[in-house]
Fold this protein.
Amino acid sequence: MRIGFGYDIHKLVSGRKLYLGGVVIPSEKGELGHSDGDVLIHALIDALLGAAVLGDIGTHFPPDDPLYKDISSRILLAETLKLLGQNGCDIINIDCTILLEKPKLLPHIPHIKENLAHALDLTSSSISIKSKTKEGLGSVGQEQAIEAYAVVLIQEQTP
Ligand code: MG
């Protein structure tokens, strides 16, 4: 078994949608990014690539590549899963924390979990998504940014 860790941060700006785990969350601001800016999926991709020692999101999906302009991060996640599969890895479980001042994410967590379970071909009992505020502190607390952390456990596929 191997463990992987991922982190991401995006600026929050008006006029962009807030994507989390492939779900659009009603919000005044959304993530600025080359892709759709889905900070949760980006942290998760880095955790998955890290666990499999396959580099990071920037090496596989360069942010200056026009191919990835405004791309859905779900497509990047699917590509990452394909890479893990080619390297004989299965996901056991994932645990994520999103840091965001507002809106409150609790009502949206079941939908995010369901969406990720579908994307990762896991049961939602293998997926933990937590959210917190930063109590008004720093860029996240000032509603200028959103952060996500992800930890994953993977195992070698059984023949
Ligand atoms: Mg990112």
In short: The mean pLDDT is 96. The pocket of magnesium ion is lined by residues 8, 10, 33, 39, 42 (CB under 6 Å). The helical segments are 39-51, 57-60, 73-86, 109-120, 138-141.
